[in-house]
What we know:
The protein is of the alpha+beta class. It has helices at 2-36, 52-61, 122-131, 195-204; strands at 42-43, 65-72, 82-86, 92-93, 98-104, 110-112, 135-142, 150-155, 158-159, 165-167, 171-177, 184-186, 208-214, 225-230, 238-240, 244-250, 269-270. It is built from four helices and 17 strands.
Amino acid sequence: MFKKYFNKVLGYNILIALGVFILLLLFVQSGLKSYTRHDESVTVPDLRGSSFEQVKNILGGKNLDWQIMDSVYDMSKPPMSIIDQNPKPNSKVKEGRTIYITINATKAPATELPDLIGRSSLKYAKMQLESYGLKVGELIYKPDPHLDAVIGMMVDGKNVTRKMKLPRGTVIDIILGNGLGDERISVPYLIGMPLNEAIFKMRGYSLNTGAVIADEGVSDTLGAVIYKQNPEYGQGNTIRIGEPIDLFVARELPAGVEVDASLYDKMDSIPAK
């Protein structure tokens, strides 16, 4: 009898303890939800493009904190404007969450000017300057026998030195050769020479081959002989470096065309005018 009564009381106590435990658990969960604002969130605003002062006001109005995570330089964006953020715009976060921002630096980092003068073409120079974060400005052509060769560079009208430090985004004006120098030389004597030898000789004097007019029956143009040229060789006849000479060729010299081989190596430089 006593044992039965004891077991019954024990069972009631266990049920009461279990009920109290469940009530406490529900109370704690309810309080925790209230404390952490469960199911309540804030939409992260899009801060990109905003100024740093605007960001402080925007995030402050939403009970969000902020911290600068990084800085980069983009010359197309205003200084101290927001470039990126984490969490991303329109993300859902709790109030008090820290938003990490990347800002645009106020000063461009310095970069080294690549060594291009005297060793680069226009295409290569553009690629190199852009890879260093520099911009190509005006293309200025000056007399030089090498077309599109980089013969100088300038910033704001002043010549630059090799490997000097410049802010990223600096505009570089490139001075290029126009393929025609101011120096003049005597027109070379090419009559009687095979075309391939004449071309080789003209290259040695930085002259170009113009039109090649072959007589009827010429199958091997390079092996054909030159019987006429334009401009002609003659006392006082000059040509500017880089200019072309038109050549008339035949399988053999026409009748009446005489060759003076002593004139092949006669070339006089003429001062530029």
